[in-house]
Amino acid sequence: MSVVGCELAPPGGVEDGGSILAQPAALSEQVSEAKQAIEQDRCFLESADDSACDWASYVYSPGDFAMTRDTGEAILVIDQFPYLHTGLLRYRNRLKGFFRARPGGHIEPASHTWRVPRVLGEVLTRFASPDFIPAASLGELVTPILTTYRGHVDMFGHGLTVFAALVDRVPHHAIVLLDVDSLFLSTLAPESFCAPGTDPGAQQRLEAVARTTADGLRGVMHEKGVRYINASFGFSMKVIREEWQRVCRSPLPGDDVLRAKLLAYAPIMDALFNTEGVFAVHASDQVQAPEDSPFDLASSAYPNRLRIGVFGALESGVDTRGRGATRLPDFAFPKPGDADLYINHGCDLYSNCNATPLRVAGLSGVGSGTLLYLSTSWAAPVALARFISLRQETSCSAPLSNPLIQQLAQELTPSECPALPEGKCIFQDPLKHKQFEVYRLGYTN
Predict the structure, then answer these.
(1) Which alpha helices (H) appear in 23-73, and where do they start and end?
(2) CB atoms closer than 10 angstroms to residue 27
(3) Could you tell me how far CA 74 lies from the centroid of its own chain?
(4) Of 393, 397, 440, 438, nearest to 412 (Cα)?
(5) Residues 163-178: pLDDT tens digits?
(6) Residues 83 and 58: beta-carbon distance below 8 Å
(7) Residue 377 and residue 296: Cα distance in Å, rounded?
(8) Model confidence over 336-376: pLDDT tens digits?
(9) Strands 95-101 vs 107-109: parallel, antiparallel or unpaired
(10) Residue 18 zone, left/alpha/beta (φ > 0; ψ -120 to 50; rest)
């Protein structure tokens, strides 16, 4: 196996040839044993009262983090994680932290206990190995798990899907989770958020809470060695109006009051997109009016961020550098100017897919599946995985600094596409060209 760029050697050196591939025979035997154990666990399938079946509890602990090969550059995924889904038990060794913002703005460790059928828990934790095991290699377990434990495996969630699109594409990177719903100022400071515009101190109190939250975010980054952020969310006037109606339950105030509350998020966005040596992808949205979506605009205030769009083409026609596109794709979201980089999903709007569509790790922790629905939320983790692979291939020995981030971002969208806006190759197809660490390191072809 030949690897360009950095490769993390197995423990003890490379006397055995330095292979980082799993031993397929041993893994196959473990999968067969796990499948048999699940199929023999009949209680959950046959009993009308599953309370009499065999259950087990697993308390989440950062102490379970264990990776044989770890770059030391963790990824902070900020998304909807009200709890840790069943499938995340299989990845507990990859989770370096789980956090939530608390009222007042302080970021604190979050707790969680998985309560699952005992055999299922034993299977999932068995494959929560310090050595990387691709979810696709556990595909034989999908049907037995869903048949035996239907109703006991929670497989739905925006954050879970983002995680699944990312985790196996970056096998040597630890992941930190933070529940985005806890970042809403309507939750952190409801009295100040819901105060009318006639309260002169409400805005100052709201901004103070946001600064506390921003400081907490930077603290988590420092503590956990975060160098990458996936932000598949955003704050806009639409969000502020929805939060007012959900929390305040009173008539909407004027737009000037609501815009002031929106701008109170500025310290939080600065922490995410302007922290030294931390690169962020931000799922793009359509900007209707600049004053209503100030954080979605291109801005020199956020030099470490790329706004990510999506397009759907069965044949993108672009090479490994994005060259070849002579016009805008038939479908691209959002409109040009509202994203810095567009990722081909590999499927069109009618759920027709090419040979390399966006596949994600199975949401039950095993297997893999194709995402048919196009979204910038799913494109963002793909773009992040591509950025990380480029960094590992070309510059992994250098500390990730702001200048290096700018250099890599420019390399992702080189100025080699004269037919496109500003001549930049903003339409990329890393799925087609397999431009991710899981391929570069030889874990799968």
Answers:
(1) 24-39, 43-46
(2) 17
(3) 12
(4) 393
(5) 999 999 999 999 999 9
(6) no
(7) 14
(8) 899 999 999 999 988 999 999 999 999 889 999 999 999 99
(9) antiparallel
(10) left
Q: Which residue has the tokens 């990458």?
A: 228
Structure tokens given for 338: 């509202």
pLDDT at 10 over 70: no
Question: Residue 131: how many CB atoms within 10 A of its CB?
Answer: 16
pTM of the predicted model as reported, rounded to 2 decimal places: 0.94
Q: Which residue has the tokens 């930077």?
A: 218
Cα torsion 78, 80, 83, 84 to 10°: value is -60
Residue in 227, 171, 232, 178 with CA at minimum distance from that of residue 380: 232
Question: 192, 205 in Cβ contact below 8 A?
Answer: yes
Tokens for 379, please give them.
Answer: 């494109």
CA distance 33 to 140: 11
Q: What are phi and psi of 81, to 5 degrees?
A: -130, 70
Domain borders along the chain are 26-440
Identity of the residue numbered 11? P
Helix (H) or strand (E) holding 117: strand 113-117
